[in-house]
Write a structure and sequence with these properties.
By secondary structure, this protein is an all-alpha fold. Helices cover 74% and strands 0% of the residues.
Length: 414
């Protein structure tokens, strides 16, 4: 890749130019920015045949770290922008999506992966786990508006809070897949004792401590920023966003809990302190712009990977496309409707929330993280990359084109 360094800088410049001009482009063409950037990257990857092949198996660490940063910044932005207070009746739709819809998606995709693609048990569980969470990065266009703007209807709030929390809640199932694959690679069977250990450590402990770390860091940061000694002082929002992100993530990972959960909770806890202060808007603007820049790089690179895959001899069977459409158009919407049934929401709101289960950069992170542990066979890894890439690609186009229309159908949204 280093021999193409100058050309890659040019591609990056084009990606950022698309982002800067997108408000003008979107007025003329009904298209989302991710669609534009992925298409641009795919064309480059397909026609630039002298470009080194972006092999995800060989560049797993780079993919993991880059996507991790993007997701972290996105989680901070999501937590800061939420105006809704922490009340059970307001968060019930989110909780139901997390506890009902996400497990349905994991189980369904694991079954499809095992029987349709012939994946091993661990790889099948991993397929379900990495595709279960909605993406906080690509879902930013359907989330709530900036802090204190009043643009916080039920569908947008539900989609924002779901994307903010389920990225961390997918981790226990990713670890389950890794432990199953590890056991089988060592010639062992995954036992009930191992399952109990997984539940206590990876589910109860890591989730609980992740939430606790997030609350503590968020509240302490708020005390510093909004104290009487700093209230009248201009504090750089850039430093605060980065500090909030890295402190919560670093502490959570140090005590062996989930950093993604800690980051979102820290941002939300910070937001609930002096919640009407205009400083939250400045933080949101910085986080949103940083997220957009990083997202542009990842999406163009992902598009290049897809383009190279289409141009190469990688086999794309019809089952891959069928399973992708089944997951996005049947499994997620049905799982969402089941979870939201009985709630005091308009049926169009339920349908919009259920249908807009966007998959994206978070999936790339989880997949690369799990495969980097070294317990999955290359054959399974290739299948996982192919299936996940197609699901993300289809999601970008389907949800990018349908989201504005679906949200306009709901009674609370203009």
């Amino acid at each position: 890749m280093i021999e193409n360094y100058n050309q890659l800088l040019l591609i990056g410049g084009m990606a950022f130019l698309f982002g800067s001009l997108f408000p003008l482009i979107s007025k003329r063409i009904p298209i989302s920015l991710p669609i534009l950037q992925v298409t641009f990257g795919a064309l480059i990857g397909y026609f630039w045949i002298t470009l080194s092949f972006l092999n995800p198996l060989e560049n797993g660490i780079i993919i993991e770290k880059l996507t991790e940063i993007v997701v972290l910044v996105s989680l901070v932005g999501a937590g800061i922008k939420i105006d809704t207070e922490l009340a059970w009746r307001l968060w019930r739709p989110t909780v139901r999506l997390l506890l009902i819809t996400m497990p349905i998606g994991i189980f369904a995709m694991a079954i499809l992966g095992y029987y349709t693609f012939g994946l091993s048990l661990g790889a099948a569980i991993l397929l379900g786990a990495v595709l279960a969470p909605t993406d906080p990065v690509l879902a930013s266009s359907i989330q709530v508006g900036p802090p204190n703007t009043g643009n916080e209807d039920t569908p947008r709030f539900t989609l924002t809070s779901e994307a903010g929390l389920n990225d961390g809640l997918a981790f226990p199932f990713v670890y389950l897949a890794i432990k199953v694959a590890e056991a089988y690679s060592e010639g062992k069977r995954f036992s009930l004792e191992m399952l109990g250990s997984w539940f206590l450590q990876d589910v109860l402990w890591q989730i609980s401590i992740g939430v606790l770390v997030g609350v503590i860091v968020g509240k302490l940061m708020a005390k510093v920023v909004f104290s009487k000694y700093t209230r009248e002082t201009t504090i750089s929002q850039g430093y605060v966003v980065i500090a909030l992100t890295l402190l919560s993530y670093g502490i959570a990972e140090y005590v062996h809990s989930y950093g993604f959960i800690a980051v979102f909770v820290a941002a939300f806890s910070f937001r609930r302190s002096e919640c009407e202060h205009s400083y939250h808007e400045e933080l949101h603007d910085f986080a949103e712009q940083s997220e957009g820049l990083l997202m542009s790089l990842v999406l163009v690179t992902f598009g290049m990977l897809v383009g190279q895959g289409l141009q190469s001899d990688i086999e794309l069977t019809w089952q891959v496309y069928i399973v992708s459409f089944i997951f996005l158009l049947i499994i997620r919407p049905i799982g969402g409707i089941i979870a939201l049934s009985g709630l005091d929401m308009h049926r169009t709101e339920k349908y919009a929330v259920s249908a807009l289960g966007i998959r994206g950069i978070g999936t790339l992170y989880y997949l690369s993280y799990a495969l980097n542990q070294g317990y999955f066979a290359d054959e399974d890894a290739i299948k996982l990359w192919v299936v996940c890439s197609i699901v993300i690609l289809i999601s970008i186009f389907i949800h990018g084109l349908s989201a504005p229309k679906l949200l306009k159908m709901t009674p609370d949204i203009d």
